[in-house]
Design goal:
57% of the residues lie in helices and 0% in strands. It is mostly helical and 104 residues long.
Length: 104
Amino acid sequence: MEKNYIFHQRLKEQCRKIKKPIYQVERELNYPRSALNNYRYGKIPSGLRLLELSDYFDVNPEYLLGLSDDPKQTTIAEYFYGLELGKKKELYQLCKEYFDPNLI
């Protein structure tokens, strides 16, 4: 499948997951009629629309564009803030050793 068409395929996939037709998503996001169906021709959405859709479906923008196969890919910061204090300290020590082994 061409990269340009992945966005529309993933958009349809996300609509199926939440059991809503594309036109209903358009209405809920106050988009013009057929705005999302027009992406079936390979057009890429604007940055703003991409962020709105990724937020609506709770997936990352890279996934919708086909740049990632993980819809819930987390950033390093999100991963770090989700750690318990002990694990944060362990990670800090590992980073310290990696960047400056003379500090040990």
